[in-house]
Design brief:
alpha/beta, 7-stranded mixed beta sheet, 19 helices, globular
Length: about 475
Amino acid sequence: MYCGIDIGTSSVKAVLIDDNQDIKAVATHALSVSRLHSLWSEQQPEDWWDGVVAVLDQLAADHANLMSGLRGVGLSGHMHGATLLGADDRPLRPCILWNNGRSEQECLELEKRESRFRSLGGNIVMPGFTAPKLEWVRKHEPETFEKTKKVLLPKDYVRLLLTGEYAGEMSDSAGTLWLDVAKRDWSDPLLAATGLDRSHMPLLVEGSEISGTLKPELARRWGMKSGVVVAGGGGDNAASACGVGAVRPGSAFVSLGTSGVLFVSNDRFSPNVDNAVHAFCHAIPNTWHQMGVILSATDSLEWLSGVLEQPAAKLTADLGPVSGPAPLMFLPYLSGERTPHNDVSIRGAFAGIDHGTDRHAMTHAVLDGVAFAIRDCMDALAAGGSKPDSVMAVGGGSRSEAWLSIIASLLGIPVEVPVDGDFGGAFGAARLGICAAEGTDPANVCSKPTIGKVFEPVSEMTTSYDDAHNRWRALYPALKEIRL
């Protein structure tokens, strides 16, 4: 048996899989996010650990026979979170999360101070990354900064409590902006730009390698044998790629979760900073990936759900199939945007509302707006040399057939949907746990799942959606000029 644990923004999730990679048990524990001020987004690291203990306690209580045969654990988690530990390994403050926007000024300062963030780090310095958050702490909370002995990412803080080891892996660490991504090693000049050095960083391993073993007292608590290994794991998107088999060069997936991601695996480090594309290490050796990211995918639909006081699933179900663009347009910039704009201050908008606008039209516009933003990501990836032949769809939004048909027609390539199953970060982490425990090749373990349905581009929709996308793109610069 193997366990994957995913530290998500809204929940901790654990899955148990057997030797055939069949999911045998699942447990979840809800988390909350604190937003004390505009642009702030934080969580208490202790809450992640409470969640991990809760899900593993539940699995041990309900599936003792499965837990007794556990051999490997893999970890996944939301990226970029700045978890600052003091000399006693206790968090010094809440973790600053991936969707935090307070460090925009620090990004500008770091770009001027060290040009190699773009060349070595492979990315524009953005507020969501870890490095500018530490610069914000150094400027605004100097006493906390001086007390900081280690900086860990969310899943790596959990790893410390599981194993006692300070360890990280390449895919998640690339999102800090302190990694020399091509060399897969910490960069001394990038660390120095934020007043840090290697002593503040964890040891690096590959995601499919052993990072430590489970503490004996925890193994006893959960009814496991001694010597359970913990794999390096992966950042949430790289782990999800392992879950859907997007590990070979050119393989790709689109994730419709809280945020939206278009992910393409590469055989080399391929930065494209001009279009705000993320270029990171993959969670398996000698592999990298490019990624376009939008900050509000299903989050946009959930926002509309709250405003209209209708469940999101009902809004999309009542909409039914679509045959072309909505009569109005929506910009999904509720928390700013990454690819291709790198604009933390831009906000969302509807355009074209009239007396006939109803909830169906607004729902349709939200689906279109998110799909248009994903098309922006595809165009940015194509400019950087990545053009997949197809993508696999994952995440909660992939349950909407209308949404997938829109995306296929906009991207001009088939969108594949796996048969019913869970292929997210926790499942991918469990696969990496297999690799670490058994020493198997991740390219063989991380195979593609059986495809349940394929959404082909609809020729009658492609032209109309191309035209609508061109009109939609004109809204961003106009909105930017008059932002409130």
